[in-house]
Amino acid sequence: MALALNKEELSQYLAEVFPQVREDFAIDALTEDSVTMRLLTAERHLRPGGTVSGPSMFALADVCVYAMVLARLGRQALAVTTNCSMDFMRKPEGGAQMIAECRLLKLGRTLAVGDVLMFSDGSDKPVARATLTYSIPPAGSAAASFS
């Protein structure tokens, strides 16, 4: 399935409908099958001890799957997370940005399932893995488009 939005269009649309992400996340790469994003790690993302917090890693995983759904389906701003499962495998580096690699495992009419691996920038060892399910509003419904 071809992309409905390219990297620039996706970044612009996210800034319009979800302006909070502008300060914290950046899209590094986008293909038909995957998106690579980063958490622009700042003091507010750290927990005591100087490591990236679990809620910040959840936000990165969630935004990645949301971005991938938007990239494939287009302007579907009201798609929502219905499930998330995360495994925390090792301590992320507090001074490094978090990199997330996301791919969609399933994209149906009503549900999308994505898998995300997260790394500290500069390391090839994953610090966390998440699988998320998104609910997609029915085509033609008032909730299906937001422009």
UniProtKB/TrEMBL annotation:
Gene3D superfamilies according to UniProt: Hotdog Thioesterase (3.10.129.10)
Which domain of life does the UniProt lineage start with?
Bacteria
Q: Which InterPro entries match?
A: HotDog_dom_sf, PAAI_dom, Thioestr_dom
Q: Does the keyword Oxidoreductase apply?
A: no
Keyword list (alphabetical) reads: Hydrolase
One matching Pfam family is: 4HBT
Domain Thioesterase positions:
49-124
Query: NCBIfam families attached here?
Result: unchar_dom_1
* PANTHER family associated with the record: 1,4-DIHYDROXY-2-NAPHTHOYL-COA THIOESTERASE 1 (PTHR43240), BLL4964 PROTEIN (PTHR43240:SF10)
Name listed for the protein in its UniProt record? PaaI family thioesterase
Q: Which organism is it from?
A: Ruegeria aquimaris
Q: Taxonomic lineage of this organism?
A: Bacteria, Pseudomonadati, Pseudomonadota, Alphaproteobacteria, Rhodobacterales
